[in-house]
Structures are given as structure tokens and as C-alpha cells.
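seq/struct pair 1
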Amino acid sequence: MAFIDYYKALGIAQTASDAEIKKAYRKMARKYHPDVNQNDKTAEAKFKEVNEANEVLSNAENRKKYDKHGKDWKHADDIDRQQQQRQQQQQYAGASGGGSYGGSDYSDFFESMFGGGPSRGNRSTQFGGQDYNAELQLDLREVFATHKRTLTVNGKNIRLTIPAGVQDGQQIKIPGHGGEGMNGGPKGDLVIRFIIENHTAFKRDGDNLYTSVDLDLYTALLGGDFMVDTFDGKVKLTVKPETQNGTKVKLKGKGFPVYKKEGHFGDLYITYQLQTPTKLSDKEKELFAELAKLRTP
């Protein structure tokens, strides 16, 4: 596989901050997304590069390894360990007055990766492929019910079932859809992180939902029934007489679906916001004045 300059792939400098990396990734991902560039193999390859670059550079430890080892960053720990062993061997040889080991200062693993002398056999170390990271943006209403979505990864369509109740920032792993392994090692995985956008009047907190509704003065004082919106339809609420502004009521089971627990839902909490009448008629003012006199001790 050809070497990919991850910084160049995202169009950023090597000194870019985490925020700049995230911003650049989202911009490039939108630009080259397969849904926007259907049947465009060049855009598809670029989209793969962008995701691979983000996978590495958005992780502080991986970025450090990449800056040090470039294309071999995935094997940084092994390389560093072998280099340390080589130094120890050289120090030992120097202290004992001896020479190299078996005609080479390198271990079999190091030689198999970089050459440098005859190997003691055909042994090779297998390494799993790189995991790919991707973000999938969904609307809150889309994750209220379980549904299927088709993703295109490396030219292959993946039929993905998204369970109801998935959380913002939650990740799922699809085995075997990442990068190729080394020396016959297994392929990496595809890790999808969900970004849930909320364009509703409801605030979500875990499995519970929160919203507020306007309550007119007369219903608040005298009580009564009125219809309110829930996430999946309207229900009738009965308001108790003399209900105060800011009163909260709970509608059990009218919240968000519980992740991977079919038939289980959180609760919906409604806060009443009392609306004071405006543009009163003379008659209304007269009646309110009479009421005020009745309330005066």
C-alpha cells in the first residue's frame, strides 16, 4: 500500500491542533463522502484516506507514533523495543569485547521488517490491520426506532442495523472491515461513532426526555384538560386547579427507547410555563379588578 501523508490528506500542517484536525476532517469527509460523490472512485479513495488520517491524527498516542515512524507507526512499539534490544546487545558486546550475534546486531523480527542480514528462518510476525474510524451523523428522530442503514466502505456496501436508543458519541465495531493485516494477520475493524443531532423541542438526558409547554392562566387556576406533544404523538393531560408556574409532571414510559431493551422506555418530564394574558378588554380588566378586591385581606 502506498504511503499516505496524513497531514497532507487533511490539508493541515504538522503543528495543527486537535480542534484544527477535527474541523479539517469533517470538512474533507463531507466533501468526499460517497453519498455526495456516487460512482466516483477517486472521491471514494480520497474518503478512505481522510478517514484513515483522522484515525491516526485524532489520537494523541497514534499521532506521536506516526510523527516518529511515519508509515510504520502501527509497529512503533515493536520497532522501539527491537532498537532497544539492539542497543543493549551492542553495549553488551562492547563491554565483553565480543562481536555481533550470529553475524547481525538485529533480531529476526527487525531483519524481517527492514532487512539487514540473513534470517535464521522464514519466520514472520503477524500483525492485525489498522482499525478505521468513521462518524455517522443521525437526527434524534432517526434513532427513536431501530432501522437499517447502508454504508459504503472501501467499495463495499455494509448493511448496518442501528438499534433504537443509541446515544450521542456511542461507538460500535464492525469486525473485519478495517485495513489489511501484515504477514497474513487479520484485517482491522471499522469503528463507527454516532453523532446525534437534536432538532426537536425535547431535551434528551439518557433515556429521559424533557420539554416545557405553555399553560394559560385560566386552566392553571381552574384546572382542565389539554393536549400536549410527546415524541411519538399527542396525549391528553389533566391539569390540577391552582397549578403554579414551573410545576413539573412526569409521563411514565413516554421518554426515549432504552438501548437494546425492546419495549422499555424512559420518562417524559414536562414543565408548565404560565402565560399571563395580554391585551385585556375593559370588561376583563373590570373582572380582574373585582377578583383583586376579593383577594385583598
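seq/struct pair 2
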Amino acid sequence: MICNLFFITPTIAQQVFEDIVYEPVSIEYEGVHSPVIQDYADRAFVAIKNYHSKTAQELFDSILIIDKHNLLGLYGLAACKHADGDYEAAIEALTPLINVNPKNAGLFSLRARCFMVLDNMPKALEDFKIAVELTADEKDILSLSECLFYTGDYAASILEADKFSLKQNKKPDGFFVKGLAKSELKDFLGANEELKKAIDIDPENSTAYFQMARNFLLLKETNKAMKQINKALELDTKNAQALDLRAELKYLNHDYSNAIIDCNRVIQLDDETKYAYLTRGKSYNKMGLKKDACADFKKALELGNSDATEQLTKYCK
């Protein structure tokens, strides 16, 4: 019985999408247009991208001294809040701007990104839909696809990711999102085809190898799964989920002692894992170490792994 069947979480996916979420968007700004204002704005957004939000804020303040109603300056201050990680303040600043500029896609886009990081996916989804309707910006299309994935609308997520990939077929992101969504729809072969496309473009994406390994495991192709999980770990030696999955594969291949070694490494990285304790317990049990096995089954159950109940009932009376 395969117990370690967890799908990739939004938190893990978010790490892959981090650069897209962080990058400030381009919008059509309203207010006074002048070379001085544009120069301040260009320098300010470079400062944000380089994580110098204090410098950026000073430049946006300079814009507002010239024109206190300038949307570029007001949007920039909200972008600074976003860059500083103060997403609620950014939303608070953006909402009145949106109310008076309801056709400005960039405002909706930035607010959506704030909602996204705050894990308010329904609100993010609503704003990204509006942003895409207004301009069909490629980054917003991809982010809309991500939000649809997070909210469980996998078929719609694939459709939006397709739109992105048609425009940006040299970027891995659309293929990666489609791979995740097809995995959730249990189209594991189709998912791996998409993930392979993402890997061909970006061979350093350890998460894509990890997800391919999971899909092969679910297809009961353990040798192919092992090959992919080893690639994931070559790229990220401290990936606890990848180690956890490899331990499961080693257990299934009756390599109990090495399964235990991987489980020990997982537990060192994350002692709250509910999967590694179960896999290690099963491995101990196969090796005749009942006391150690039962201790791990109890720990797995304490951490919320209900599959440990069967093991405790069967072997630890």
C-alpha cells in the first residue's frame, strides 16, 4: 500500500512562481506626463526590483510633489508596500485608486498579487480576471492560471496556461502549471508530458522532477519515479519532500535500510513530518524491529497521519 501520496501544495508552487508574483507590472499611468516624472519612475522601479524600497519610495514621493494626484506616484507607493511585504497596506492603498480608475489593469494586477501572497485566492482570482479582461497581459494570464489551480478549477487553469504558453513558448511556467493541474486531474501521463516541456526549457527546476516522480509512482512505474526523484535531489539536496518520496520508493523496492536513512534525513530537516515516521516505521517493521516500528507509528499518528492507525492495530497490540 502506498501511503505517501501527497500532491504539491500551493506553498511549494508559490516558490516556483515567486519571481512572477514579485515583479512590478507596467500600466498606463494617468496624471502629468514629463521626462522628470518618467525618470523618477524608471529609477524607482529599478530600486524596487533591487529590493531598495526606501530609495524607491523617496522617488515616488518626489513624483507626488510635482503632481499630488499622479497615478504613477500613488501606484508606486503601493508597489513599495508590496515589495516590503506589507501586503495589507498595499491593498489599502490600491483600493481607492481602483475605485477612481476602474479601467486600469495594472492596479487590479498588483492588488491581486497582494491577495495571492496573503492566500486570499478568491479575491486574487477576481482581480486577475478583471486585469486580463482589460489588457490580456501575459503575466496576468499566467497568474490567473495559478489562482485557478489553487482554487481547484484545474480545467480552467489549463486553459489559461495554454494561452500563456501560446504567447510564451520559450518560458517553462505555463507548461509547469499545466503539469500540476493535469496531475490533480489524475492525467499523470499528460502531466508528465507538460512537465517534460518545462524541464527542457529549465533543466534546473527540481520541483518539476519531483512532480514527475510522484506521477510515475502513481502510475506504479517505480524505476522511472526513482530516476526523476534522484534528479530532483541532485538539484536540491535538502528537499524534504523529495527525500520523503525517495524513502517511499526504497521501501516499495524492499530497500528498507536505505529507506530508513532517507527518513532520518527527512526528520532532521522537518521533525513534524507525518510521512517519514510512517515509512520508517514500516521499514523497521519489515526488519523485525517491532519496538522502533511501533514508536514511529505512534509518532506518525500524533502528527496526523491516519494511515498509521492500521499499522498500530495490526502490529502493535
